[in-house]
Amino acid sequence: MSRTHTARTQGARSDAAPWRTSFSKRLQVELIARLGYPLLSGWGSTYRFRTEGAENIERALALGSPIASFWHGRIVPALIYFRGRNVAAMASESFDGEWISRLLSQFGYRTIRGSNSRGARRATLQMLRDVKNTPIALTVDGPRGPNRVAHPGATWLARATGNPVLPFHLEADRYFTLRHWDRSQVPKLGARVAAVIGEPFLIPPESNDDELESYRLRLEESLRRCEARCHDLLAGLDEHRTPPA
Fold this sequence. Notes:
Layout: H1 3-15, H2 23-44, E1 48-52, H3 55-63, E2 67-70, H4 75-81, E3 88-91, H5 95-106, E4 110-113, H6 120-130, E5 136-139, H7 153-161, E6 165-172, E7 175-177, E8 185-187, E9 192-197, H8 209-239
Parallel strand pairs: 1-9, 2-5, 2-6, 3-4, 3-5
Antiparallel strand pairs: 6-9, 7-8
């Protein structure tokens, strides 16, 4: 065996995610992906969505491939709501990222692999390519927070590509809250889920860093307005419930 081949093999091994060397971890990934999809898909099929601002999706598509931006804590309802639309989403190279990637694929999403700590450059380049033809969903405060603080990734990508930012929020009337930094919301069976799609906006490619920061703050504010409107919609649904006899 040549030294070049040996070096390449060792390099490939060093680049591989550490969990891949564990049989038990690989088995867990397989089981989670196989069992998680029918469970989550069936659970999500009981959700009753009420949407406001759906026309903003078409407005965004008319401007380019949308960079759909939302909070990390609403991944589960977003997964169900946008399933089957060939949206691209990021998943890390970690153990969790692997089973998440497999679940995303089964729900009709494309996946971009990478994270801040592994494969970041490759993932960024792939996003730049994919956003030309495919909507991309980004959790703008992920993957580690702080909660409800938008990172500059979505606005930077919008400036680099000329494609629109599309903020949205989902809120359920009944849900479980996970013990996680993002206080992830998992709507309960039969939950009513309000989905509010905000107005898309473009970021001029000549924007400087100060201007880009103002757009980042604009995204945060838009997400807050979307969330407030979700609560209004759910409150309105409660008011229109038929009182018990």
